[in-house]
Amino acid sequence: SALVPWRYLEKTVNTCMDSIVGGDWLLKKMYVSPITLPLTRWIIASVEFVFSMAVVLIVFAFLKHSWSVHLLILPLAIVPWSLLGLGVGLICAVLFTFFRDVRPVVQMALMLAFFSSPILFKADLFEDHSVQSLIVKWHPITYFAALVQKPIYYSQWPGNLDWFVAFTLS
User: Fold this and answer.
1) Dihedral in degrees, nearest 10, Cα atoms 23, 29, 34, 35
2) Is the sign of the CA dihedral 92, 98, 103, 108 positive or negative?
3) Nearest Cα to 56, choosing from 9, 10, 12, 5?
4) Do 141 and 84 contact (CB within 8 A), yes or no?
5) What is the reported pLDDT for 39?
6) pLDDT digit string (tens) for 67-107?
7) Which residue in 3, 5, 1 sits closest to 49, CA to CA?
8) 24-56: per-residue pLDDT in tens?
9) Residues 6 or more apart from 35 whose CB is under 8 A from it?
10) 77 with 146: CB under 8 angstroms?
């Protein structure tokens, strides 16, 4: 359930990172604030994400047996994902402007974050006090994933800690 928000975060970071360097021709021809280029990419990724979530809801309509009121929190749960993507994307855009070799490092960091966090699996998959359980428990993306996974899998509201950590990191 957190795969669609993760793909949104990943797309936002990657497209924002390339935006200033890719739009340098526009910056040379007329006065445009450089921040508009990553913001434009973020808006485009956000619109695509809305369509992706519509497809997810259609799939849920056919596959999910029981619906709960907890699913109403999903639009608000996307806000930290969006803010994190924009923030990391802006940082990467500035870094990529000065250091072109940063792209493979960012992509590797995103891949490591993806495979070490509970995006494709539930956080309670591992036994308590195991190494894997500790990694998942202390992984920052776990709290972002919980904002989407708890309403869908467990029919419960995300906890205060989930919201606090997600918005603080965003």
Assistant:
1) -80
2) negative
3) 5
4) no
5) 93
6) 888 888 888 999 999 999 999 999 999 999 999 899 999 99
7) 5
8) 778 778 888 888 899 999 999 999 999 998 898
9) 90
10) no
CB distance 77 to 49 below 8 Å: no
Phi, psi (degrees; rounded to nearest 5) at 2: -95, 5
The neighbour count for residue 115, using CB atoms within 10 Å, is: 9
Question: Residue 68 is which amino acid?
Answer: S
Place of tokens 């907890």: 70
3-state helix, strand, coil in the chain (%, to 5): 80, 0, 20
pTM comes to 0.87
CB neighbours of 14 closer than 8 A, spacing ≥ 6?
106, 107, 110
